[in-house]
Amino acid sequence: MSRIEKIKQNLCDGEALLIKSAANRRYLTGFPSSAGAVLITRKCARLLIDFRYFEKARAEVKTCEVVLCRSVYDEIKASGITRLYLENEDVSLAELSRMEQKLLGTELLRDPKFDKLIADMRAVKDEGELMAIRRAQKITDEGFSYILGRIEEGRTERDIMLDLEFFMRRQGSEGVAFDFIVVSGKNSSLPHGVPTERKIEKGDFITMDFGARVEGYCSDMTRTVAVGNVSEEQSAVYETVLSAQKAALAEIKAGRVCRDIDKIARDIIENAGYTGAFGHGLGHSVGLEIHENPSFNTVCETTLKAGNIMTVEPGIYLENRFGVRIEDMVYVTEDGCINLTRSEKKLIIL
Ligand code: ZN
Ligand code: ZN
Question: Between β-strands 292-296 and 283-285, what pairing exists: parallel, antiparallel or unpaired?
Answer without folding.
Answer: antiparallel
